[in-house]
Amino acid sequence: MNPLFKDLGVGVGLRPAHRSIFLESPPKSVSWVEVVTENYMPWEKEGWGKSFQMLSRIRKNFPVALHGVSLNLGSVDTLDPHYLFRLKQLVNQIEPVIISDHLAWTGINGETLHDLLPLPYTQEALNNIIFKIDQVQNYLGRRILIENPSSYLEFKNPEMSEVEFLKQVLKAADCGLLLDINNIYVSSVNHGFNPKEYLKEIPGDRVGQIHLAGHSDQGDHLIDTHDAPVDPKVWDLYNYSLELFGVKSTMLERDEKIPEWSELEIELLNIGVIQNEFIKSNRTSDLASRIHSPSATL
Ligand SMILES: [Fe+2]
């Protein structure tokens, strides 16, 4: 059976600070890029902006994933038809390999709050977001990915855990998962759960992409700031995800204190090293089990 999502290799969240590098001497350390959708969508009156023109040129050398922050899937507001129309125009132009947004709500009564706010994990909220994802997928004519959130507060009396909620979304909406490993780690520290138990619950065939990022430690809680290198505990969790799901398209997000490209490349190369070590050790253990098996034929 064909997998739902193919491995694209190592990618990066492309930010304006590094665009010129991608335009002038496309780096070999990444094989695809992810961009924030809203920064490239056409304006209703002005049309396409300069950023879009640059992305079109970069698109000639790199597959592009579109990562949105304003679909507002978890809100009780109806989906914004203007937003959807602009998104579809961008999709038609860029032909992205992945389209994603968040398991969150970002506005109410037509007001955008510019933040990814957590959902109450109730049947009512579940039905609502499944309905919205279904509408988006029907409109775009393709499957989208939903990213698991990082959170700092929880609602009282949830009807199910976050991972159970997420699993039901993936199944009922028939969408994919953008698995953010750092988000799981941040929430696990903030709410006191075991991040490996969370990961074990995830259906691996639904994982279409992985995010890695840094966070900041505030003493009694962590914040998902994307302003630092990936934490060693998050690398450990990434290794664990490889054991569970195998190699998936993986990318690095950095949104604040953006370093020189050469510094970011060190972390990008590390993703490749970890993936290769996993593949190598898997081959070795495969070989060992075949040698020790009485019916082994080499
Ligand atoms: Fe993320």
Describe the structure.
The chain has 298 residues and is α/β, with parallel strands linked by helices. The chain has a single domain (10-292), classed as Alpha-Beta Barrel (TIM Barrel), CATH 3.20.20. The chain is 43% helix and 17% strand. It has helices at residues 16-24, 50-59, 81-94, 123-140, 162-173, 181-191, 195-201, 232-245, 261-292, and strands at residues 10-13, 32-36, 64-67, 98-102, 105-108, 111-117, 145-147, 176-180, 207-213, 216-217, 222-223, 250-253. The two termini are 25 Å apart. Residues 294-298 have low confidence and may be disordered. Fe (ii) ion binds next to strand 9.
What are its keywords?
17% strand, 9 helices, eight-stranded parallel beta barrel, 298 residues, two-stranded antiparallel sheet, TIM Barrel, disordered C terminus, alpha/beta, binds fe (ii) ion, single chain
Summarize the structure.
This protein has 298 residues and is α/β, with parallel strands linked by helices.
Structural class: alpha/beta
Strand content: 15-25%
According to CATH, the homologous superfamily is Divalent-metal-dependent TIM barrel enzymes
- Number of beta strands: 12
Bound molecules: fe (ii) ion
Unreliable spans: 294-298
Helix content: 40-55%
Alpha plus pi helix count = 9
Strand arrangement across the biggest beta sheet: 1-2-3-4-7-8-9-12
- What's the structural domain tally? 1
Enter the CATH topology name.
Answer: TIM Barrel
SSE string, helices as H and strands as E? EHEHEHEEEHEHEHHEEEHEH
- The CATH architecture classification is Alpha-Beta Barrel
Give the N-terminus to C-terminus distance in angstroms. 25 Å
3D shape = globular
Main sheet, how many strands, which sense, barrel? Answer: 8 strands, parallel, barrel
